[in-house]
Amino acid sequence: LPAIVRTRADLRAVLAGIPRPVGLVPTMGALHGGHRSLLERARRENATVVASLFVNPKQFNNAADLVAYPRTEARDLEMCAATGVDLVFMPAQDEIYPPGFETIVRVPMLGSKLEGEHRPGHFDGVATVVAILFTLAGAERAYFGQKDAQQLLVVRRMARDLGIATEVVACPTVRDPDGLAISSRNVRLTPAQRAAAPVLHRSLRAAEARWAAGERSGEALRAAMRAVLAAEPLADPEYVSVADPATLDELDRLTGAALLSMAVRFGEIRLIDNLPLG
Ligand code: AMP
Fold this sequence. Notes:
globular; binds adenosine monophosphate
């Protein structure tokens, strides 16, 4: 069974002298098949696997979303045990953010586009907590999902800029059979919303098909995504994007790789998905 540690001091103590390399999988708990794929990959590639379970209040720009975020601690520990995790770091809030905490880690350019534009402060929260986790764990590698493509870019830039030697490993998006990217928030969808939610992936695939057929206009690809979303009455699109995969700037013309991405609301629930081209 994995060892459970709850304090910064215990994490440091347990990690001293542990077999290397160490692979870190940061999560907010409510573990699902997407997390499992990260844990399994970390298990294959490292001598020691550390999973962190911490619902990070600083990355929630919406208080109701934080309160409603699913918490499934017992099942999370079962998945960690089943995937061979060695160490689970489950800190209380004031262990990560002790009294007087005031430091903010900000990646202003990458963190302000797309998700950052619609969720102000979100990536400050992500970059800050991941900087703390990377510093505490001192892992050789850390595993993140392509599902959160912008998060991957922000975390990589943060680690490089701060001289943190942890290699950020990108893992493919895990989907349900109908194409819906697995997310902890999916369980909050009503049955009708859940039935409608694969429209994100369908619209990404429609744009990808246009691109494969030679379409290189960013606006045409955005229009292709919007058209598929518009046919689903329960889906309320927040943005659709065809962006440069390195800078996240919107593209007029595609001359190389691109990142298709979107955020779509179903009632209170906000889902994101993306698909890299090229
Ligand atoms: P979270 O617990 O939502 O913060 O996610 C923890 C990690 O799991 C992040 O690196 C996510 O990108 C990754 N993740 C979440 N959902 C998926 C998925 N469907 N496929 C692959 N990775 C995922």
